[in-house]
Amino acid sequence: MSRPPLPPFTAETAAQKARLAEDAWNSRDPDRVSLAYTEDSVWRNRAEFVSGRGEIVGFLTRKWARELDYRLIKEVWTWNDNRIAVRFAYEWRDDSGHWFRSYGNENWEFDEAGLMRRRVASINDLPIAENERKYHWPLGRRPDDHPGLSQLGL
């Protein structure tokens, strides 16, 4: 199985890879998202360690059951050969209606087929008032004309 664009990455292909990841995560479909990772992919997400697609699906299922109305934007920080570093921010609410913006960085490492074999994420959550939200598109893929992180001042 191959997931273009493939390494080695350029500025253009790293940006394409980040947007494809953003689109997949905004689908909130754990099975779809898991297909971008190797069978034995290893993650660190905050203080949680995940290994393999089955655990990825379980992790994402739990995540999106708790993080409601999830909307994400990713932006490439840097890239080199088979690695990409992104920064991101996503907005979500909990089941009691409290809104959050979660900020973070991810380091990604890909195999030759363009599947991610390692993902290391550091994330911080900021409570926000509903009127402070910046992401208002309908759930799903961020529209092409919606500003990115830099344009939003995030």
Provide key terms for this protein.
single chain, about 150 residues, alpha+beta, Nuclear Transport Factor 2, Chain: A, 6-stranded mixed β-sheet, 4 helices, about 40% strand, globular, DUF1348, DUF1348 domain-containing protein, NTF2-like_dom_sf
On the 0 to 100 scale, the average pLDDT is: 98
For the biggest β-sheet, the strand order reads 2-1-6-5-4-3
Strand content: 35-45%
Write the H/E string, N to C.
HHEEHEEEEH
Helix content: 25-40%
Which descriptor suits the 3D outline?
globular
Radius of gyration: 15 Å
Low-confidence parts, pLDDT < 50 over ≥5 residues?
none
Counting copies of identical and different chains, the oligomeric state is: single chain
Largest sheet: 6 strands, mixed
The CATH class label is Alpha Beta
Number of discrete domains: 1
| Structural class by sheet pairing and helices | alpha+beta
Number of helices: 4
Assign the CATH topology: Nuclear Transport Factor 2, Chain: A
Distance between the termini: 35 Å
Q: State the CATH architecture.
A: Roll
How many DSSP E strands?
6
What's the quick description here?
This protein is α+β, with helices and mostly antiparallel strands and about 150 residues long.
Secondary structure: elements and pairs:
Layout: H1 11-27, H2 30-34, E1 37-45, E2 48-51, H3 52-66, E3 68-80, E4 83-93, E5 99-110, E6 116-128, H4 149-152
Parallel strand pairs: 1-6
Antiparallel strand pairs: 1-2, 3-4, 4-5, 5-6
Organism: Mesorhizobium hawassense
Protein name: DUF1348 domain-containing protein
Pfam families: DUF1348
